[in-house]
Write a structure and sequence with these properties.
The structure holds two protein chains of two kinds. Chain A is 21% helix and 25% strand. Chain A is an alpha/beta fold. Chain A has one domain: Rossmann fold, CATH 3.40.50. In chain A, the strands form two sheets. A nine-stranded mixed β-sheet of chain A has the order 2-1-3-4-11-10-9-6-7, with helices on both faces. A two-stranded antiparallel ribbon of chain A has the order 5-8. In chain A, β3, α2 and β4 form a beta-alpha-beta unit. Chain A is globular. The N and C termini of chain A lie close together (10 Å). Chain B has two helices and three strands, in the order βαβαβ. In chain B, strands 2-1-3 form a three-stranded antiparallel β-sheet. The chains are: A alpha/beta, B alpha+beta. Chains A and B meet through loops of A and α1 of B.
């Protein structure tokens, strides 16, 4: 049985179609768009909050989208164990919604950074990452101005103790260095998961590295992992 | 030396898209009585002059030429001597 995916569309989302395309055309899955004003998740098994600039990034990234009507359902769904993946702006929305801990601040360089980076998968036991076995580092692009992840000492200790740091920015060989850190994120954090393992937020864009036409397909391992493990 | 506190406000007749977007969030939160949200800019800095008049002149210059756009924004400021 294949899972049904829902891609939430906020005003200002701009990776919604890329994500839809990958799930539909590369993976041949059942996928629908969910408008942010609707209150039903239409029996989706996985909800994706896509990248973009919801509500123009006004006030704080994700701060207004977090109160869009659909988010009540997404939060309920997540708290009941439903699978939620937040990519880039979607990650920022998950932070504002307190589905994941911590905050995002402006990149240390003050620049919008758009380039391919390498990701070390620190936790390969999640439904999102079980299929990444054998890869030292994933080549996935980032594109953000506010991806500098920050959390207080206590939260960081919790994240590490519970193995919640799923992805870190790394060198090609998987080593974690400050030069591999594109935005100043504390401990090179690129993606984290909640304690119960059903909500993942990540700044890099797996949907932009899933179609071989684009010359890189490492991102597809995350979607593949979800499809293969969600009902197991 | 003076501490300057500058408030820059978009003129009332000019659309504030940010305030409008934020107010949509208020509606979604159920805060239905919130009206006319405007997001302004508050800026603080020190001015290293001896006289208050010289400080005022420099702050005016800073505001007119850089901090505010006189076509669509008004500014006001206070100066406090730092001892």
């Amino acid at each position: 049985m294949k899972p049904k995916f829902g891609v939430v569309v906020f005003p200002g989302s701009n990776c919604d179609h890329d994500t839809y395309y990958v799930l539909k055309n590369i993976f041949d899955l059942d996928v629908i768009f969910l408008w942010h004003k609707q209150s039903s998740l239409e029996n989706c098994d996985v909800i994706i909050l896509p990248g973009g600039f919801s509500y123009g990034d006004y006030l704080r990234t994700g701060a207004i989208a977090r109160f869009s009507p659909i988010m009540n359902e997404v939060i309920r769904f997540a708290n009941n164990g439903g699978y939620v993946l937040g990519i880039c702006n979607g990650f920022q929305i998950l932070l504002e919604a307190s589905l994941l801990p911590g905050i995002m601040i402006r990149n240390e360089s003050l620049n919008f950074v758009c380039k391919d980076i390498y990701l070390k998968t620190e936790n390969k036991q999640t439904v999102f990452t079980k299929g990444i076995n054998g890869k030292t580092a994933l080549k996935v692009p980032i594109a953000h101005g506010e991806g500098n992840y920050f959390a207080d000492e206590y939260t960081l200790r919790e994240l590490e103790a519970n193995n919640q740091i799923v992805f870190r920015y790394s060198e090609r060989d998987g080593s974690i260095t400050s030069s591999a850190n594109p935005n100043g994120s504390v401990k090179n954090i690129a993606g984290i998961i909640n304690k119960s393992g059903n909500v993942l937020g990540m700044m890099p864009h797996p949907e932009r590295s899933s179609d071989s036409v684009l010359g890189k397909t490492d991102g597809s391992l995350i979607f593949k992992s979800l499809v293969n493990n969600i009902f197991n | 030396m003076f501490k300057a506190k500058v408030l820059i406000k978009r003129r009332k007749t000019i659309l504030d898209p940010q305030g409008k977007a934020v107010e949509i969030g208020a509606k979604h939160l159920g805060l239905i009585n919130i009206k006319n949200t405007r997001i302004d800019k508050y800026i603080e800095f020190n001015v290293d002059t001896k006289s208050k008049k010289a400080a005022e002149d420099e702050v005016n210059d800073y505001c007119k030429k850089l901090l505010a756009n006189p076509i669509m924004e008004d500014y006001e400021f206070t100066l406090e001597e730092i001892k």
